[in-house]
Amino acid sequence: MTDFTRPWHATYGPAVPAEVDVPDEPLTAALDRAAAAWPDRVAVDFLGAPTTYADLADAVARGATVLRDLGVGPGDRVAIALPNCTSHMVAFYAALRLGAVVVEHNPTYTAAELEHQLADSGATVALVWEKAVAAALAAQATTAVRTVVAVDVSADLPAVKRLALRLPLPAARRTRTALRSPLPAGTPVWHRLVAAATPLPAEHPRPAGTDIALLQYTGGTTGTPKAAVLTHRNLVANAVQGQAWTQAEQGTETIYGVLPFFHAFGLTLCLTYATRVAATLVAFPKFDPDAVLAAQKRRPGTFLPAVPPMLDRLAGAAEKAGADLTSFRYAISGAMSLAPQTAARWERLTGGLVVEGYGMTETSPVALGSPLSPARRPGALGLPFPSTDIRVVDQEDPTREVAPGEQGELLIRGPQVFSGYWNRPEETADQLLDGGWLRTGDVVRVDENGFVVLVDRIKEMIVTGGFKVYPSQVEDKLRGMPGVRDVAVVGLPGGDLGEKVVAAIVTELGAHVDMAALREWCDARLARYAVPRELVILTELPRSQIGKVLRRVVRDDLLAGGAA
């Protein structure tokens, strides 16, 4: 590979540096500084219950003692399966303070899914909300988990809301059922343990920047769950890069935590970046537009990391309610393409900016972003972050770069790039090339200003009749078709063609879309080989926890005959 220029630096936002200095420190150092400089500032607001930075630091120190007394030491894995709440933040930083490795899990996992990841990580202690205690206890027989600690999420609520849960009213019963579950006798309870503990001594050894901080599970390009190994330096670097990109001033931001903390996007923007800039994090256990608008009256937000469906639903709810969103100066959208109309409506309602970002769990996760300036490019993934380099290479031969402007696989190198997959040396070797270059599995092209535009994922590309069809390009055309509310395009076995292009569509209420209409619409907009050969109408599309359409699941369901 040859040397290359970095044209994107000229398009950066005002004062954004080309390079950043990544301090050699653990993630917990940012919390220590915030608690010292802003002790009385609210660190977390959970449904109206405020926790200051001083109180958060104290709870983390006590939580670290609890974990130490449970036998957790440097390098031990601590599983966390919690919805967004104050206790999630405490548990996250308490484990890191000891030099332990956090393993984040989706709190709604089935018992089998949780058991697989607990066994794979080798976690010895699991901090789980009451709803997941039974699944975690069942996994003890086949995993290294010694202790399961129950977390009562309702204990993080304001006192008046906790009392309301006891009322003999239908609404209170529904909320109580959603948050709580009976516990087996003898199950240790996190809040009680933390309240009784003494703070970990300040002189207790701290982890180094090179130590592993997090095992974050990802399906990657294969769909097989595997844990990306992220060090303190990886995560600190991404928080530093995010601060440089947003030019956030210490102690001024109010970040809305609607993304799940267990996902890489939410973890970095809400747990590590927020603490680095001493922001107030307004945390929500799940995304609810009405709850967000209620919080907006109480504690107006300035920054919203989100996915496009969240922006769309929140904007619609605000318009319907006449709510004021003008405190939001900027939003960062990720995980999927941001529709121009969604971006335009958000910017009209807020008067601020919304830009797209791109990344992977393996990049901690943010690697690219559109500038927070008039130079932003709707529809593009953005520009490489400070201290981040990219290459575009031949999909079959990653050692050969393609000509400028041609499409190829995106490679990324930077301080936020992971060190490999947990106990998977072969997959690590496939993904990480010499020189620290990460193969993303995404096909892109780069324009003359350095903006990266996504074509599609290599693994989801459809080969039909010898032609390559990128699902996202077909989906973009179909989303503009009258009557189409949502769409996923997949490849199914097509005989002599190899694969046939199939469109799975969710229609607008009362709309009728048939194959003839779809073919007529596509004939004028797509190459003939890319026109879907089959149409399936679904009532909804399967999505990930953050709203990303799961094409792989759509394809598997169609192969199994599960179409509705």
UniProtKB/TrEMBL annotation:
Gene3D superfamilies: 3.30.300.30, N-terminal domain of ligase-like
Coiled-coil region(s): none
Keywords: Ligase
CDD domains documented for this protein: FC-FACS_FadD_like (cd05936)
Domain AMP-binding enzyme C-terminal: 474-548
Enzyme class: ligase
Record EC number: 6.2.1.3
Highest taxon, organism lineage: Bacteria
GO molecular function, one term: long-chain fatty acid-CoA ligase activity
PROSITE patterns named in the record: AMP_BINDING
Domain AMP-dependent synthetase/ligase residues, every copy: 31-422
Xref: InterPro entries: AMP-bd_C, AMP-bd_C_sf, AMP-binding_CS, AMP-dep_synth/lig_dom, ANL_N_sf, ATP-dep_AMP-bd_enzyme
Presence of keyword Membrane: no
PANTHER family: AMP-DEPENDENT SYNTHETASE AND LIGASE (PTHR43767:SF12), LONG-CHAIN-FATTY-ACID--COA LIGASE (PTHR43767)
Official protein name in the record: Long-chain fatty acid--CoA ligase
Organism for this UniProt entry: Cellulomonas triticagri
